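Write out the 3D structure for:
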Amino acid sequence: MKYSVFSSKKRRNSKPKPVSMPIFEYYDASSRPGFSRLRMTIEKWVSRIPIGERQDLISRLRSRRDQDFSSALMELIAHETLIALGYAVQKNPILEGTNDRPDLLVMNKNGEPLFYVEVTTEWQPEETSTRNRKIAPIRDAIDRCKTPGDTRFSLREIQVGISNPKISRLISHIERWARENASKARAKETVRNVFCEQGWKVDLVLLAGFKTNPKSRRIAVSSQLSGTVSGPESLRHAAEIKAKKYRNLRLPYVVVVGCKSTGASWVRREFEEVVTEAIWGDEFIETVSLISGGYRTRGLREKGVLQESGAPRNKHVSAVWCFAQSDLWHLADIDKEPILFLNHVAQHPLNPRLLPVKRLFYKDDKIKRHEGKRLSDILKIRSLFS
């Protein structure tokens, strides 16, 4: 029996993705450049999943919950990467004497076990997901506003009210305001307004001078609206959950984390800086007064997955492998190259030759870097989405 992730329908949807539309639904419907190749790539990778496990993965990929889709896709990316490196991969192996089943067991071509892998994605609180669902219809409606062709919005904030807002009335006010103030925006004046509707507040700045395109989104700039815990905290939380799951494995244990690099903190900071803080902790300087009257300083890190104030944590975790996004679009981006963090005091150290990718590790109390193979070369996807 052939299992397909995507439908075989004709696709004519060339519009950008609405915020409220599930990721899978949009991927299955879009006719925009690159999406056909993306669908073919996912189908090809799924075909290499063992038949007995394939239907479950497809069901999760087809989920209307973006968290389920992203988690399944991250698992698929990890599986394909390991296959491309020449390994045999067993999904959900049963640990002897328990009912526990890690996501992946990685073996060499002779079937000898090498290490276990658990896959996760960056954590998002349930209250944040609920808030995002409430905000999405309003943001989509603003994106479709009928305003002068060269104008766009900077969406600064949406504050959620108690009751559901009258969206049509809100949009009518926004459209009239944009028309009446377009000339001021073209003159580079600051044009800002906060629209209130049944307890909701929408903070907008009107911009002008854009290329006229009736199909373009009206929101050109957006602050971090969703309230998502972005950066080291949420990444650390996701990795910690998996780190605690298996403590008595007899092989190296690798945690793979798919991040969300769309939040405001990622824009301001480099991916490597953010994930280093998450895995090895926030850096600070400790100053100790000496009896002689002088003082001694040393650099320490706290609240990391693998380290706390210079002391090791989660020694049963051999490595944490961080991906900038749990998606395929940016796997070939050099500034979002996945990073493998090796635990130098792990109970079962991972031989770095087993995963010859970009990695960071401690040596002589200093963080060292090895560039390794690029993921796009391993997966042969460099030209897929260019």
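Residues 167-186 form the longest helix (20 residues).
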